[in-house]
Amino acid sequence: MKIVLPGGTGQVGTILDRALSAAGHEVVVLTRRPRRPQDVAWDGAALGPWAEAVDGADVVVNLAGRSVSCRYTPENLRAMMNSRVDSTRVVGEAIAAARRPPKVWLQMSTATVYAHRFDAANDEATGVIGGTESGVPDYWAYSVEIAKNWERTQAEAPTPDTRKVALRAAMVMSPDRGGVFDVLLRLARLGLGGPVAGGGQYVSWIHDEDFVRAVEFLIAREDVAGAVNLAAPGPLPQREFMRVLRRTWGVPVGLPATRWMAEAGAFALRSDTELLLKSRRVVPGRLRDAGFAFAWPGWEGAAGDLVRRARAARAGPGRLRARVGGG
What's this model's pTM, rounded to 2 decimal places? Predict the structure, then answer.
């Protein structure tokens, strides 16, 4: 198959590009900084010669958007919104204009669309969309609006011959340098991976192998469209999540952090506490109903595999580096 990855240079794009290319597919990456023969230049905002790559492709997986690994200032939040909405709009325009449109358009979204909650898990049928919770920072609602606008832009695109799926992805865990697992593992290795603000908030995640397998599954399943949660069936509280990671690496203690300590740490890392404090309790309702079988359903097994691969990468040459966001 010919698979086009707009914004395929970030962490998730690197994972997909590597796996899909190894499986024998022709992968074309749309990026602002083309470096390889299979890279095509685009700006993520306007139609251009890059649209020729979409015409005749079998699949488009749009991953473009400004990285969420930043301070959530008004300027950065606007950039997150605009980069996601604009790139989704222009991908839809390219598909609509294609003489031979792709059969399926998978559009990256986020599990952040769901409410901050502890009482029950969010699946696609019964999950609570966020934005109106009390007792959380006001700007958390803007993150939900980004996700809603992201999905709405895809849904409203006039592409009647192309099946559309919105990937409500949890944190994709891979040993690639610079990814979210790399950051969490670094904290654990330094003895800083203890409970944050009590650690009761849920962490939803998906192993990189299962993320790729789920994408392949959704490409093949012509009866699945709309929003699909890409998350392992075993979300767990942050304190337990980090306890398992520390134990797997061999670190006996993780220092706890209060909310204000988390704020200071996030500021130092130029990130935001929403990534640490929001309870994302998300489960894969539609994937499971469609018969998808996770290779890594539980965090203990997944953490063991990821730690083994991270150790091997640190011991050998050619360490992979990947950004969280793609362009």
Answer: 0.92
